Q: What sequence folds into this?
């Protein structure tokens, strides 16, 4: 399961989430453009994401969804 789902088509490239990530895992794409004409964000290393959701909380357009990985030893 992905830890982060980014609705890149709605991103306006404001960088608020980039600055909020404590692990510095987000960046503005240099080569992609979305339908709105903005460079959307991209996650550079999903394995390093700690699912803290700071990025999702910071996004004014609520386009980031964060999923927490299941806790070790928990069966449900
Ligand atoms: S959930 Fe936390 S660690 Fe993961 S990308 Fe967002 S701010 Fe960074
Ligand atoms: S805060 Fe939201 S709109 Fe701004 S760059 Fe990040 S994902 Fe895109």
A:
């Amino acid at each position: 399961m992905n830890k982060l789902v980014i609705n890149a088509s709605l991103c306006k490239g404001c960088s608020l989430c980039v600055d909020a990530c404590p692990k510095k895992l987000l960046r503005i794409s240099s080569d992609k453009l979305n339908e709105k004409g903005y460079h959307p964000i991209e996650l550079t290393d999903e394995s390093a994401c700690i699912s803290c959701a700071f990025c999702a909380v910071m996004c004014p357009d609520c386009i980031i969804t964060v999923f927490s990985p299941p806790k070790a030893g928990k069966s449900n």
